[in-house]
């Protein structure tokens, strides 16, 4: 037993000597204990992350034989982003009364997938001829990317792709879409039957061939009779002429169900006055004599007696009265190209087939472009418009087509080509006519490219081009401008923009997000609730309410609203599982059950 004790004592002396004669490695294990990071939860600001690494190194470990270098890095996924090398102590520090302070501000770019990363700090200690590696320290866990929730029409996984950009539209509500064609059918004296067995060739050919781009809406027939004695003896002659002509038109193939109205005028001088106005067989004074009688207070018969006294009556009656043995046929046509929902497909097919657009005006093409549902149709129509009638509308709208094609393009190279084409079209539209819509669309193109600085400049310039503060487009533009303010970190300014923007679920949500990021949680709560009230199918409003509940520690409200949000959006479900704002609830059973 005594020999055992002597052996143990010997080992202890050997160990103590070894420690005394070697670099004291263990003492450097605590060298990073006094260093921290602020904020403790990193946050995305614009397109980067800012962090302040600060603290002090322990004085007892610092001497002329020691140099200390620090290596911060952000680890996420399967990779790590090294954030530089910093000399914390270079061995020349000789003030033993104060600690060596460290205050290093670091900014590094945000990269996709950083939400669940960790900021760590490594150190290398050079002591004489030794290199020591103390245990690394975790400074911050997770990254708050709440600004990325901002909605501005971007493509989001598992959600419908939204149309972006603003088309220039033409108002066709006051555009003439009606056309009238008038025909006169002559009848023999005192007869209600027109010559032949069918209708006159001129009227027949028109009814069969029609007018290109128009459809017959209805026909109106007005029967007439002349003031000749043979016709005056039959009071129903004018009406009979109209009815008989109606039946003949009904017998034309394809017209049996067409609306046909009939009317008649007899013992009336209206049509005679119209003929007299263009009649050149008498002079002005003689014509005035007839007008004096026709506009007097007498009845039809009295006026006839008076005119029979004129020297010119025989000539006038023989040349004009036969023209009143007739029926007026008015064909009412509807411009089918301004009412046909298939016009875009028709024009598109003609362009594809290389056929001409005979009968189509610029207005028809603009209308077709507005009616087109498919981007391919719109592209061909607006391309044609830029060729035959270059205008701000044509170039702007073609640019919007390219913008939406880029929105749907998966290939990065192809996407950028389309964005560049869109910007070119918008700038050409602005060259032809400076306008706020095309400038706004330039901003949308840069936004799609994620060039937020250029996007903000263009969107702001678009607002400057609008003078009317109540203009609907200006209010819409301010909504996009507010979204960019959030991305740029100007949260208070964003809330002002949204006060002027249209009141819809997206703008209410973005407004709530701006207040949330500005740490005004009461106003954020109000705005998120307004978003939900406008559209309960829009899950983002519920997600915003869950964010506020997380900040206030209201677990029941968090669970209730987050459940509603993730039911409505698969994207929000995936985001919630890695959102650092919810990290304190990750082990809560009710929270975990939401994702099963």
TrEMBL record:
Keyword annotations of the record: TPR repeat
Entries under PROSITE patterns matching the protein: PROKAR_LIPOPROTEIN (PS51257), TPR (PS50005)
TPR repeats: 505-538
Name of the protein in its database record: Uncharacterized protein
InterPro entries associated with the record: TPR-like_helical_dom_sf, TPR_rpt
Species the sequence originates in: Mongoliibacter ruber
